[in-house]
Every structure is written in C-alpha cells, then in structure tokens.
Amino acid sequence: MGVKRGDILLVDFDPGSPGETAKVRPAILVTNDMANLYSPVLVVVPLTSNVSRVYLRIREHLGLG
C-alpha cells in the first residue's frame, strides 16, 4: 500500500466502541515505517474538528534553563 508515518488516511471506524463515533474519518498514521512494511496492523489517531466536548487541560512545565 506504500503508507508512511505521518500520512493522513481515511479510516472506517465502524463498528465503534460505545461512546465512539463509528464512521469514516481522517486519521494520522503513527506507526513507524518498518512496522508499516511488515505488520498487518497500523496504529492511527483519529482526527476531528469538533472540540466542543474536549475537557482536557494540559500544562507541562519544561524547566528549561
């Protein structure tokens, strides 16, 4: 198939787990290129533009300097 890490793919997430949207949506491929060549499994992260239900507050002190 010739996919590379960082590619954006259209993935059919149906059937989905409860609480997940089961439909075709874009996803970013995060597995490394060697695994993409030899493994039948790809790891993707679904993308969305709907952030109205996102309640994550993430802060990280980098402590540089």
TrEMBL record:
One of its GO terms (biological process) is rRNA catabolic process. One of its GO terms (molecular function) is DNA binding. InterPro entries: PemK-like, Plasmid_toxin/cell-grow_inhib. SUPFAM superfamilies: Cell growth inhibitor/plasmid maintenance toxic component (SSF50118). Transmembrane segments: none annotated. This is Type II toxin-antitoxin system PemK/MazF family toxin. It comes from Thermus tengchongensis.
